## 1
Amino acid sequence: MADEKPTRLRDYGLQSERLLWPTKGPSQFEEDMGADELERALGITTLEKAVRWAQTKSMWPDTFGLACCAIEMMSIVSARYDIARFGMEAFRSSPRQADLLIVSGRVAHKMAAPLRQIYDQMLEPKWVIAMGVCASSGGMFNNYTILQGVDRIVPVDIYVPFCPPRPEALMEGIIRLHEAYLAGVPPAYERVGVAT
Ligand code: SF4
């Protein structure tokens, strides 16, 4: 759920007799600028927003590849795509130091338990991207060996379509994830359950 949008200077914690006076409407200054413009012009924000901003600028992915999609995922650290622009060049080898699990490829039933274990070892807040049709829904592998969607074992924040998704598509998913979190959308584990 998105944060309640502040409309008055007092919503930012500024206190003066006029701002706190219950029957006083917005001042001419507030009316002329609007809350969004005020926030930008005065450089004020909330601690929650500042923390969210910092978290989206250091959302380190876990080093975890499953199938062909992983090759596309690897290329996002290359000079051509340069995920370092978003503070994400550091793929972590330990889930305890990672914030984002990119499930890149089909998940065999045999891999379901290790994948869930890796997810459980990540500290909160944490996010999951299902990359490609196989991770999202099993894709063309509608058979007994493949999990029909990784959202059956972990809560997924963003689904990236295609087979395989190009690195641009994965980056689009990452940017959408950043935007959603900055807008106040909590991680998926707070919003959705898993089927099993
Ligand atoms: S979506 Fe395509 S590229 Fe990705 S793991 Fe499945 S078959 Fe491979």
## 2
Amino acid sequence: MTKVYPPERVVGAFSEVRMPQALDREYPYRMSEEQRALRVGVLGAGPISQAAHFEACRKAKNAELYAICDVAEDLLERMSAIHAPRKAYADYDAMLADSNVHAVIVAIADQFHVPMALKALGAGKHVLVEKPMGVTVEECEELCRVARSTGLVVQVGTEKRFDEGIAFARRFIREEMGEMLALKAWYCDSTHRYTMTDAHQPVIEASDRARRPEGDPKADLRRYYILGHASHLLDTARFLGGEIEAVRTRLVEKFGAYCWFSEVEFADGSVGHLDLTIKVRMDWHEGFQVYGEHGSIIGKTYNPWYYKSSEVECFSEKDGSYRRPLGADGHFFRRQVEGFADTILDGAPMRGANAEDGIAAMRGMVAMVRSTETGEAVRLSDVEGGV
Ligand SMILES: NC(=O)c1ccc[n+]([C@@H]2O[C@H](COP(=O)([O-])OP(=O)(O)OC[C@H]3O[C@@H](n4cnc5c(N)ncnc54)[C@H](O)[C@@H]3O)[C@@H](O)[C@H]2O)c1
């Protein structure tokens, strides 16, 4: 299904708008301010798009929700009625053939990420792919290779990098903290999680016609939790602490709860501890501590659907005081789209996770799982396959 809206709804003249091309081309494009919006096509009208991406694109200062695509036409109709994109496609190839689509947000099941992201690159579109980047190291590397060869932007949707509190902590580490000694990070989903998210998210519409990978992804909960949650934990740990060389992980399973404790070796010689626990019998519990040469950091991160920036305190030995950002803008998903658009439209440095970061997180997840199998420390550079 392709719905074409009357021309008066179309802002600006498409013919004058140049498609964003490889980053080494000339910037900025000759567009009016009105035209300088990244036209985004969102693939997938499932829960994450309904709770985050549609609104993020609509609120973004430099992007537009240009198209929505979902094979489930009932869902497509309902989401189009709410969010009024210019186009609605039931067929992904048709959306990709639309030359007005500059970039695609790939918001579908993990197993489909890489194949559909590759298709988008093949059609000359930039890609923001949901986390995890893929389900095996090899397919993530393939996506990275193709992104490099096309020069198109590939960003991975670990939106916590756009949490103002976490970004503040990273700046403090780089600019004031000096050498790192140790980093601890925890990501503990709560037994009360759905009560909390239901209170904040819009009503999530479902369809029997939605396309899902074969089999039940929740049949193997360990794999499901690692892909869904360790992808965030590892990305935040790397965003703050830098490259991870190796992990040694223990998994304990009791009363339906899973606890992965990982001892981490950072490339700079620092030590780390990562705690992934699903589900803790208390509130959502996520955060980090960093100890450095001239200061230390404590951060508390909220359930993302509260749209509240992390509470972060950075203590500086320089003046013996704490620095604490307000982080008034907690819309990480909107900020993520804006960062993505800044990179594409203006060649701004990518603030989100790039394809290499996506691979590193994938390697980290695989290393954690291999380590639980052997009890040994596993180097991220040595792993292959999936979790
Ligand atoms: N960043 C975050 O914090 C966060 C949070 C939740 C979920 N996610 C990620 O978002 C992704 C999507 O999650 P979801 O729960 O919305 O998924 P979902 O599978 O429930 O919904 C995906 C939708 O995409 C459609 N679809 C799939 N393949 C298609 C195709 N080829 N053409 C057209 N339509 C297609 C399906 O019909 C479905 O409606 C997952 O990878 C998940 O890990 C990220």
## 3
Amino acid sequence: MAEDFPKAVMDFERRFATDEACRDFLRALRWPDGFICPRCDGRSGWRASRMRWVCGDCRHQTSITAGTIFQDSHLPLTVWFRAMWYVTSQKNGASALAVQRLLGLGSYKTAWALLHKLRRAMVRPGRDRLSGQVEVDETFVGGEESGREGRGALTKALVVIAAEENGRGIGRIRMARIPNAAKRFLHGFVQQEVAPGSTLHTDGWASYSGLDAHGYGHRVTALKGQPPDAAIVAMPRVHRVASLLKRWLLGTHQGAVGVDHLDYYLDEFTFRFNRRNSASRGKLFYRLAQQAVQIAPVPFDRLLRPQPLVPGGVK
Ligand SMILES: [Zn+2]
């Protein structure tokens, strides 16, 4: 299917005025070549009603939203679509409070859950790893550095960042919260997020040693005994990303992000950052909708549960 997305808000409002129109759009994303039964992969289904599809092979009944993040939502698709449009069309995204007001949602909790579900769709399943020359470093987010102690839920979290070098600029990025800067977490992150054959650029921290054994080139800039600014000069890209991330958490989200949910904010930041040069905001909307029909539903109680840090510190 040719990528067909609204270019501006007037176009968006005209196209997605009804739930039916939203559902048709999702159907084209999920079943571009026609119905596929989620149970038996049968392709001979038919539409039994406005919402319901029936598989001709196994008689399984399903809907276009079953098995996606839209499943079991009490919100109309028109509201979901407007939330997706809002978080992708705003340069810095939006807080739950802003979305609650904008969409006239009854509670903050509803807006919060809506945005968190969308964040789950911001990591493309099976995405490529970074490659080429890649800077890697850790930074603390929150805590004393934020200057907002006692205001929000922030306490200190350690975040490891990888940024591709693109000439003097930055290519794609990845980031993850890790429990500490031990070797197994840093190596786990690198192996998950950076393709072997790439050349890593790190400081002289001992936990980064041994990465060459996993197929990576490794350039080390020793910073011990150097002034604090030396790290920024040595690895300008990860430091630029870290400072933008912190500004975003304190600005758009008013420093109210808890460490337990930080991982999903990192996903949102990464989603937007890696598409910052996209010619059209509508294209970001399209990507988000496309990924939203590819990922499983997340019940509300699972949204509330803290994100467990798996070995390696990565998802
Ligand atoms: Zn079937």
